[in-house]
Amino acid sequence: MRLKLVPQNTSFDFFSRWKIWLGISGLMMVVAFTSFMLQGLNFGIDFRGGTTIRTQSAQEIDVGAYRDAIAPLELGDVTITEIFDPTFGEDENVAMIRIQAQADAEAVSAATVTAVEAALKGAAPDIVFVSVESVGPKVSGELIQTAVIAVVLAIGAVLVYIWLRFEWQFALGAVAALVHDVILTIGIFSELQIRFDLAIIAALLTIVGYSLNDTVVVFDRVRENLRKYKKKELKEVLNISINETLSRTVMTSVTTLLALISLYVLGGDVIRGFVFAMIWGVIVGTYSSVFVASTILLWLGVKRDWSKPSNTAGNQFANVDA
Amino acid sequence: MLQIDTWKRVLIWAVCVIGLLMALPNAFYTRVEQSNDAKAAIELGVDTPEMQAEAGQWPNWLPSSLVNLGLDLRGGAHLLAEVQVGDVYESRMDAMWPEIRDALRDERGTVGTIRRQDSAPDEIRVRISQPEGMSRALEVVRGLARQVQTLTGVGATDIEARAEGDTIIVRLSEAEQLASDDRTVRQSLEIIRRRIDEVGTREPTIQRQGTDRILIQVPGIGSAGELKEIIGTTAQLTFNPVVSRGTNPDAVAGVGEKVVPSIDEDGVYYTLDAAPVVTGEELVDAQPAFDQNGRPAVNFRFNTSGARKFGDYTLENIGAPFAIVLDDEVISAPVIQSHIPGGSGIITGNFTVEESTNLAVLLRAGALPAGLEFLEERTIGPELGQDSIDAGKVATIVAFVAVLFFMALSYGLFGVFANIALILNVGLLFGLLSMIGATLTLPGIAGIVLTVGMAVDANVLIFERIREELKSAKGPARAIELGYEKALSAILDANVTTFITAVILFAMGSGPVRGFAITLGLGILTSVFTAIFVTRLMIVMWFERRRPKTIEV
User: Fold this and answer.
1) What is the pLDDT of residues B392-443, one digit of tens each?
2) Is the pTM of the predicted complex or chain greater than 0.80?
3) Chain A from 270 to 299: CB within 8 A of any B CB
């Protein structure tokens, strides 16, 4: 007996309510964008400059005491958060302290870090500084820039590749799905105020890759079916193609999610934000390859040579059969 | 129908075996690492029985390259430093001044008297009392220029001189500035490398980034602060003539002079001639030593040209004080007692033994040509790294088991084939990573886990396709063949696009992001290989043996 997530033959109609799906996607993008405009992203020091100190001690963490210890140093915006994680042991009490970039310094000021460490030692004698990271404002500005360029470049490169391999309508559909995924991912990071750092950019690009992977598989089948069912309407061909690849889409999403969820639960807190972005991306990416990419393709239409009146035999697809 | 040439079969298995062999050392990480370290030590001449025993822990005939662990996994310090390339212009100009002065003095008849004016540090301004001799003066100064090699063209010189009224302004030409920047960064890189090597840590990464930045990563070091102490000191040693000694930090310094504090006499300031007699660049050796009173000191020796300059100067200036200046602080300012011809000397000061040893190390490694500004510094404790490795291991194993189980449930025997391929895939990935000496980071582990999840995709595509082909009631052999054939274009397109993003990530990213891109990109290569070749070979071999009339996928 085989485990079947999707029945052998399905014939869901994915496009009977295509306007609603596009509407929902559009609405979600608007929400994501508004959230981004209103509260922005919770940028990590990679993008904002500043210092984060990860501390660990055997005693319970008293955030107030830490705050009082640091306050006399007058460092401006200081955030102290205690971190809880199932992977921590009994006496592992971990806190993250983030200090904004100091106004006068282009580079990293070692004196600030030393002063903060000394102050915290006063508050909790057994404190250990597990990691200390400082990024100067000069670099952080550049990091944002490179990150944005990377995402744009990736999307652009993909656009060209799909255009070459398929047709421009396919490329537009795929890219619309990508933009959709990226915006929704940024949106959820803004909505939940999860820390957004360099690793998240890597996650974003992987989502781009994954979503694309999914879209391309569907499109590949569409391309094949367009040659096979020359008389069928585009909508029907799209439906057939999505149904035929549905089992694969679900299988791959499930295996990837299985792997990611185990990493999310067991991989420790350092990497959790990153994995969260990927999980979200896999879900959104799977959704978008069906409901955004294909719908846009339907909307744009595909040039199909058989519709030409002169077409009898010998058109460009005639000899192409696998 | 389902035929694969024997040579192809051999090749496919050979690739798998080689890949797994390359991956093998990673399974015995600590042991292989100790053995490698011991072998390196033996090569350097430290040959003790313990070393031999450690080296013997891993046989020589097995591959011994390991995947490097990134800082976030091993712990250590990371610094991104910007070389202050502009510093060099100033010292170049200071060094240029005596030459210009002497050349113009020879032309006193036409240009009159000369006087150096205050100016920005990267230029020299000279006023001449007879402006009508300006063209001659410019000619003389330009005559001092040297040709520089540039990419764009010939005929560029290292300095530019122009006239502004009765003042000549001399500065480095643009071509020379570029060349000088490049040289400065290279030199800094080399000197940082030497200093870190003197301390002797394992596998430091010292890379140039962009035009004027240097990335330094040293695993296993306690903190970025410690690392900065080793590399952050410029250790610029100069010997300057002393003009006067006083207690006023704001003493008015004449043109071409500077006021420098004393390192251990509080409130004492020296006014020095800015152009040094000799610099630390001309040192050939420096050793910690003790002076005649038994206090720690540093012995040094100049090269031939340094020794000559030093000798000439001491001969001409007996009875005058000169200052030994380290990074703009006067260490000591002895009075020249006699001609010092041999080119060696001793630096005394209030040193501790440790300080004198450190100073000797810094002088020996050479001075940094320019200051460093730190733009980014990260310290990751070894415990955090170990925690991340442990968590990563558990997560990878769980992910692996979950996926294996799921595949077997969904596709039965074919799922088992895919699973074997998946295990091979991770093995090959580690093999590749060790072969190219890649660095594994925490996001890199995530990349591997993601590869595990996605690697089955190609197989899923094929199996689903075979299922479909079976429906149209072709024989099993034909269905398998068609399944592979038709799934190929989807597999290629899907993986090429993901590979493109991995390449872009690698090109644009830094540090951990790059680590992720490497595992993702290589993971795509190995997973396509295992899906298209390895599972296919396994299925074909199984098919040949069993010749089933029907198959269930």
Assistant:
1) 888 888 888 998 999 999 888 999 999 999 999 999 999 999 988 888 887 8
2) no
3) 270-271, 274-275, 278
Whether residue A162 sits in one domain with residue A119 = no
Mean predicted confidence (pLDDT) in B131-154: 77
Interface confidence (ipTM) of the complex: 0.81
Contacts of A160 in chain B (CB under 8 A): none
Whether A268 sits inside 8 A of B391 (CB atoms) is yes
* pLDDT category of residue A10 using cuts at 50, 70 and 90: confident
State whether A131 and B378 contact (CB < 8 Å). yes
Q: What is the mean pLDDT of chain B?
A: 84
User: How much of chain B, in percent, has pLDDT values that exceed 70?
Assistant: 97
Does residue B147 have a pLDDT over 60? Answer: yes
- For residue B279, give the nearest of B258, B245, B244, B303 by alpha carbon: B303
**For residues B128 and B104, is the Cβ–Cβ distance under 8 A?**
yes
Contacts with B380 from chain A: Cβ below 8 Å: 130-131, 133
Integer CA distances (angstroms), B365 to A17, B203, B277, in order: 73, 19, 21
Residue B176's pLDDT is 83
Contacts of B412 in chain A (CB under 8 A): 2
CATH of B6-23+383-546, one of 1.20.1640.10, 3.40.50.300, 3.10.20.30, 2.102.10.10: 1.20.1640.10
Q: Contacts of residue B392 in chain A, CB cutoff 8 Å?
A: 267-268
Instruction: Judge if A27 and A170 occupy the same domain.
Output: yes
For B83, which residue in chain A has the nearest alpha carbon? Answer: A107
Q: Cα dist. A77→A44, A134, A306, B377 in Å?
A: 13, 15, 66, 20
Looking at residue A319, what is its pLDDT?
A: 42
Give the DSSP H or E segment for A81. strand A78-83
User: Could you say which residues from 352 to 381 on chain B have a Cβ atom under 8 Å away from some Cβ of chain A?
Assistant: 373-381
- Determine, yes or no, domain membership for A318: no
Cα separation of B368 and B328, whole Å? 13
Helix axes B174-199, B86-105, angle to 10 degrees: 120
Tokens of B89: 């212009």
Tally C-beta pairs within 8 A across A and B.
Answer: 242
